[in-house]
Amino acid sequence: MLDQGAAPPATEPTVPKSSGLSALIRRKPVERLVEEGGQGEGGSLRRSLSMWQLTMISIGATLGTGIFVVLGDAVPKAGPAVTLAFVIAGLTALFSALSYAELAGSIPVAGSSYSYAYATMGELVAWICGWCLVLEYGVSVAAVAVGWGEYLNELLDGTIGVTIPDVLSSAPGEGGIINLPGLIVVLLAMVFLLGGARESALVNTIMVFVKIAALVLFCTIGFMGFKSGNYADFMPLGMAGVSAAGASLFFSYIGFDAASTAGEEAKDPKRDLPRAIMLSLLIVTVLYVLVAAVAVGAWNWKDFEGSEASLAAIMNDVSGQAFWGTLLAAGAVISIASVVLTVLYGQTRVLFAMSRDGLVPKVFGKVSGKTGTPRVNTVIVSLFCGALASVIPLGKLVDATSIGTLFAFALVNIAVIVLRRTRPTMDRTFRVPLGWTFPILGFFFCVYNMFSLDSITWVVFGCWMAAGLVFYFLYGMRRSRLATDAEK
Fold first, then answer.
1. Which of the listed residues 135, 154, 280, 428 has the most CB atoms within 10 Å of its CB?
2. 280 near 55, Cβ under 8 Å?
3. Cα–chain center distance at 370
4. What is the pLDDT of residue 6?
5. What number of helices (H) and strands (E) belong to the chain?
């Protein structure tokens, strides 16, 4: 919804000197956030991404493991109503996406929801949000990389008849010593990102087209084995099962906010970011629901329990020919690699913004003058995510990612309301329709999905938050640029 005739934004006051509790709520003015956009230690990020490339980044980060791998875990929780679970997760994402679109068009910077929180709710909330994004993006990269290894083995088995031994392709506790494929795909993504944003965006666009083609192929062949009787008992485990599946499947939607992390590398961020976010979410939701409907129609939901219920396995069963499953596995290998690439990109840009604000070490904000990328940042993040992918099982990573994402999205919905109250005349290229209705709905959908996750996920989240608060009070609060500038 375009905002016509909005008055120029009023300039926010300079941040006053603060101490004690007041330091925790110091806000970074919007104008300062935008003014510092692209600037890093030793160089600047380059504005080279078009609306189309931003859309491909968002789709690339979203469309992948959620449908290629996690679907098999969600179906036993919800039965045929897994399609409804995808819709619920999509609605949660939609309300938050609207809020992201408004803020991305108003505050087009690299930090995504971290920067939005800094401008609206203060430094402590911004830190908490940024810490959640570190969990969201970092653990998501690892989870996706684990899923990539599963499809790589299917591809190798279907082409040359060999697979990587469990000892080298599974995490400790799942029969292996190290998940080597998971580590390898993260390192490959790192190489592309070091080449530059424009170059990695081109590679991602090619991979996005491959993954869409692979899913369309699955729907075409899977529909031939469709059995309406598989939908006779649509919701066998009740709404509780649908809710549990929806909370886990929210993992499938976390990537749409990746476009907002490219705010300082977009050619026209105020116009293109809102469009890219909404368009990508629409495309992804339609594909998810369609693929889930065909998968359950082709296989009885009870057959998913404890089986290797990947899309490739379903295609093999329906067609009776291993060729189609192998072809889909090849598409999945390329597709899931694009998720690793784009989510890893988002992680580095969030840490770049936090480093520029002084909340994490300066090394994450150094930019190469040659490539216009935060090279050291990219290497550190890649090695960390690669290490996670090599030793932690997929299921544990998925739920940890979901809870961090839901918390960050909830804060974004609140940020829209706060900015509407504090800066009502600010220029907005997109406005969430119906006033506060959608942001409030988005907030409550996020909270509802968070409480649908199991208790162990909350324990992990609590420990992560505690560690983040310790780091902030010992390091970030005193080294914050707002704090050091106020002391001058």
1. 280
2. yes
3. 28
4. 40
5. 20, 2
